[in-house]
Automatic annotation (TrEMBL):
InterPro entries: DUF202, IM_YidH-like. It holds the Pfam family DUF202. It comes from Plantactinospora endophytica. The chain crosses the membrane at residues 33-53, 65-82, 103-124. It comes from the Bacteria. It is found in: Cell membrane. It is a multi-pass membrane protein. This is Membrane protein. Residues 24-91 form the DUF202 domain. Keywords: Cell membrane, Membrane, Transmembrane, Transmembrane helix.
Length: 130
């Protein structure tokens, strides 16, 4: 675990592995990393928006639970982004197969599940307060 985290912060170690790739591949990997960071920031912003602007929900503390879930998910996406960037860059330099990840599918399922739960909460609130 320590080695993986160290690789995130030590670009010299990464440059010493394998061969220098075509810069376009490294830049594409960096663009993907930045897209994941934007996704993490959007989830964090959504969590803050839920905490500050969503009216009280029919289930006690549902608003707070949703906000915390979005904040945690956003932080997880950011950490996962840097780990994936480092593993991918290493694979590119070594000429290995790119690392596979289930994380995008898990993230999509969690976001979809969250949307369904929010729809249920909105319907319940609409039925209670016509």
């Amino acid at each position: 675990m320590y080695e993986a985290v160290r690789r995130w912060f030590d670009p010299r170690e990464l440059r010493e592995v394998g061969e220098t790739p075509d810069y376009r591949f490294s830049l594409a990997n960096e663009r993907t990393f930045l897209a994941w960071l934007r996704t993490g920031l959007a989830l964090i912003a959504g969590g803050l928006a839920v905490a500050q602007f969503l009216p009280p929900m029919p289930v006690p503390h549902l608003r707070e639970a949703l906000a915390i879930a979005l904040l945690l998910l956003g932080g997880t996406v950011a950490v996962r982004a840097v780990d994936h960037w480092a593993r991918t860059e290493r694979a590119i330099r070594l000429g290995d197969e790119l690392p596979a990840s289930r994380f995008p599918a898990v993230l999509a399922l969690l976001v979809g599940l969250g949307a369904v739960l929010l729809m249920v909460a909105v319907v319940v609130q609409g039925v209670r307060n016509p």
